[in-house]
Amino acid sequence: MELIEKVTIPKKELLLIFLIIFCSYNLVTITLLSGDTQPAGLLPFSILFEQSVVFNKFVNFYPIEGSANFVERNGQYVSFFPIVTPVLVVPLYVPEALLMGFGYVPFAPPFIGFMNKYCAGFITALGATILYYTLFHLFGRKVSLILLFIYAFCTSAWSIFSQALWQHGTGALLLSGIIALIFLNERENKRYYIIILGCFSGLFIMNRISDSILLIPCIIFILKYYRKQILYYVIPLILTASPFLVYNYTFFNSILGGYNSELQLFTINQNILIHFFGLLFSPNRGLFVYTPILFFSIIGYYFLWKEKNKKFDNFLLWFGPVIILDILIYSSFTDWIGGWSYGPRYLSGFLPVFVIYLGISINKILKSKTNLLYFLIMVLLGITIVLSFFIHLTGAFFYPYSDWNNSGYDAWSFGIEKSQIITSFIEGSQRVDSLGLFIYPPFSILFYDKNFHKIPP
User: Fold this and answer.
1) Is the peptide bond before 95 cis (omega within 30 degrees of 0)?
2) Residue 194, C-beta contacts closer than 8 angstroms, at least 6 positions apart
3) Residue 454 pLDDT
4) What residues have CB less than 8 Å from 176, skipping those under 6 apart?
5) Which of 51, 248, 411, 432 could be 282's S-S partner, Cβ–Cβ 3.0 to 4.6 Å?
6) Where are the domains of the chain?
């Protein structure tokens, strides 16, 4: 893969892209917290107000007792989930916390919904911008802008990452950063790139243990090409991961944290292959059903394998078998569908890599001869982009109003009335009453409107 190394992307362009995507993510019909993201939304307030990672001071203000998302350990309530994401977004909470601290308004649960949505959009837009930086130098501006639109608005980045503080959004941000750092180091070998890469890797591991397998290509890359600098990678990795390891051991007596109790969800039996194909093709969880444009990523991987000629190409190629292994791990979960969510939440961690594969495919198509086959491929490409866009638009705007999760249907339920996508669109489009530009935070409490944070009727 030939790199466009002589072109420098203007910083103003990166800032503009971030702001456009961030503001677009803050176009909302409603903010609706998932139970899994509640601790992440509340923890920054606890860190700022109480200088603590426990929630005891908030028991009287928030439904913590009896919730599966908060667990009690030795009389202290803590998050069941990893805390990398809420720790990273603490700076975004500072203006809001200051206004509360100065007594302008009291702390209230709806503000958790405000900040959850605001920070999720910020993280996802930042990850998309970092990914664009790499795409720009791989494919040039025209193709990279197409890919940016696809990543930001035709994948789970819009319908899942940007909606609440899921670990997946932070994982995609960190993975995009890891890819960018390796690319930068290939252009100009600098020790500080390896050091920052180690920091990102430590955070990536502790953010979502089940996705940490996606770090294997990075580790192989360091061992194969930069073994003499391995300490500059390993030491920052350990130092960055250590606070979160201490947290896990302190409250859960395990490096896995709360997920240690979830090990029983792993089952190796004949259902793994069914789950594997379900995660890819089932009507209500299939990756290629919810994001059909990613079919072209497989073609891009083939072109990469056929024409590899750089160390960076090898790095990207190593993701192929690792991604298959990652899907197999999730296929071994008894809850392989990912609970109450829209589409293939579990398979969203490697989206930045798939978008690069997609870029290779699109770049190859655009450079091919103009003939009937070219025309048909371009039509198919356009159709899959449009389909992917409207599917994830449905997830972002209409899914929160849908009662599909209570319908009794599952991932393999066939039929229009059983489709999560179609049901979400029909129910949501009938019940949505407004579309707002949600840019109040970090001063949201001065403009608080109860209609922006409610449970749909």
Assistant:
1) no
2) 185, 222, 226, 229, 232, 233
3) 38
4) 127, 128, 130, 131, 134, 352
5) 411
6) 11-26+35-397
